[in-house]
């Protein structure tokens, strides 16, 4: 009985996969959504790295008592924060 249920489940999954892959419009929609999500993730990561680099420079400036490094860190951190806010605004407008 267990093998019969596994066979039916496998057959249903194969049939579903065939229907999804045969429907090119649905496949294109899935591809577009994946590309959009991966682009958003890349932009979020970019803003995160800017903020992290800025924080590292701020700490370096504080430890070495270097005002230039601290100022550069403030700038990098702010740039990352601005990128994040812009991305959030774009997301809000497109949703």
Can you describe this structure?
The longest helix has 41 residues, at 24-64. It is built from three helices and no strands. The chain has helices at residues 2-22, 24-64, 67-94. Helix 2 (24-64) runs antiparallel to helix 3. The mean pLDDT is 79. With 95 residues, it is mainly α.
Index terms:
3 helices, mainly alpha, 0% strand, elongated, 95 residues
Helix content: over 70%
Q: How many DSSP E strands?
A: 0
Task: Report the order of strands and helices.
Answer: HHH
Poorly predicted residue ranges: none
Strand composition percent:
under 5%
Whole-Å distance between the termini? 47 Å
Average predicted confidence as pLDDT: 79
Give the overall silhouette. Answer: elongated
Give a short synopsis of this structure.
The protein has 95 residues and is an all-alpha fold.
Give the topology, please.
Elements: H1 2-22, H2 24-64, H3 67-94
